[in-house]
Design brief:
The protein has about 350 residues and is an alpha/beta fold. The protein is built from eight helices and 15 strands. It has a seven-stranded mixed sheet, with helices on both faces. The protein has a six-stranded mixed sheet with strand order 9-8-10-13-12-11. It has a two-stranded antiparallel sheet with strand order 14-15. The chain is globular, with a radius of gyration of 20 Å. It comes from Peiella sedimenti.
Length: about 350
């Protein structure tokens, strides 16, 4: 069985990765449509060994496709995802628009694959890029000893903000070496050779929207009983998000047992040698599918505590890869058909 697939936002960082990963994973595509805004109509994007011209989203007939992968921002998703689903296609959306909708499953296939049968609106949400990395590492440990509290600090690359932020880091770096000032636009302060303790807009409680996304989404996918506090930081890295994670468990789980659990966990790669360079950095995860875990160690300051370091490619597992893996899961579970989406009884 093969599918007629459309990618909305095909000219963006994540959209291009979606196209690449559809090809890499050999997802059964019979037709591929690249969609974008009117201003990008006619631009060519790569799909395998060929190129595809972008079509205008507003003029596309969605009844002719079975599956739509969306990465064009929340406003576009809120307007178009319900229309696309009404036309019969299954929508996998990378924006935050539907993540907390009770009738829209939020899925990381290694964490909650059973939720694939709960897409009452024919829409499935992809989590925030940092949440995806966190829950892939968190869920197997939670299953082993039940996490009661988590303290997370993120170190997020500029590609998570988009192409304009990536260009800003590049131009500021060049400008500073050339003794030329490049004023910040994508961020409130200079990102080159700096770290910014703000990802997203501030809420009234002093946390940012990005921080709230992480605990809300983790609660939805893993366990609402986990007490989770987050500090999100933007760092001058092009691709690859990192997380420092401190966990408190209900039951004892020492570092060696945690390594064994994580080595057997789907989607996780443990790189944890107690020597110089025996850990993973963001630049080493670029282009990889796995979520990497390093620096696994006991926390002697609390009972049943562990600390660990988590790294993943935010454009892949944090976005495009997870979306395609959801599509694979829908195919395997019979939720996706060559004529679109069909509802299965939840059992």
């Amino acid at each position: 069985m093969s599918y007629r697939v459309a990618v909305v936002g095909a000219t963006g960082n994540v959209g291009r990765e979606m196209l690449a990963i559809l090809d890499e994973l050999q997802f059964p595509v019979s037709e591929l449509h690249a969609l974008a805004s009117r201003k990008s109509q006619g631009l060519e994007v790569a799909f395998g060994d060929r190129t595809v011209k972008c079509q205008n989203l507003e003029r596309f007939e969605f009844s002719q496709v079975d599956l739509v992968l969306m990465s064009a921002g929340g406003d576009v998703s809120r307007e178009w995802a319900p229309k696309i689903a009404a036309a019969g296609a299954l929508v996998i959306d990378n924006s935050s628009a539907f993540r907390m909708d009770p009738d829209v499953p939020l899925i990381v296939p290694e964490v909650n694959p059973h939720a694939i049968h709960e897409a009452k609106k024919r829409i499935i949400a992809n989590p925030n890029c940092t949440t995806a990395a966190l829950v892939v590492a968190l869920k197997p440990l939670h299953d082993a000893a039940r996490v009661t509290r988590a303290v997370v600090s993120t170190y997020q690359s500029v590609s998570g903000t988009g192409k304009a932020a990536t260009d800003e880091l590049w131009n500021q770096t060049k400008g500073l070496y050339g003794l030329n000032e490049v004023a910040p636009k994508a961020y409130p302060k200079q990102i080159a050779f700096n770290v910014l303790p703000q990802c997203g807009d501030f809420r009234d409680d002093g946390y940012t929207v990005e921080e709230a996304k992480m605990w809300d989404e983790t609660h939805k996918m893993v366990d609402p009983g986990i007490r989770l506090t987050v500090t999100c930081v933007r760092v001058p890295v092009f691709v690859g998000h990192s997380l420092s994670v401190n966990l408190e468990f209900e039951s004892p789980l020492d570092a060696e047992d945690a390594r064994d659990v994580l080595r057997e966990a789907p989607g996780v790669m443990v790189v944890d040698k107690h020597e110089d360079g025996g850990w993973i950095s963001p630049i080493e995860c670029v282009g990889e599918f796995a979520t990497f875990v390093s620096r696994i160690r006991n926390d002697p300051t609390i009972e049943n505590g562990l600390s660990l370091w988590v790294v993943s490619d935010n454009l892949r597992k944090g976005a495009a890869l997870n979306a395609v893996q959801i599509a694979q899961l829908a195919h395997e579970e019979g939720v996706l058909t060559s004529r679109g989406y069909r509802t299965l009884a939840v059992g």
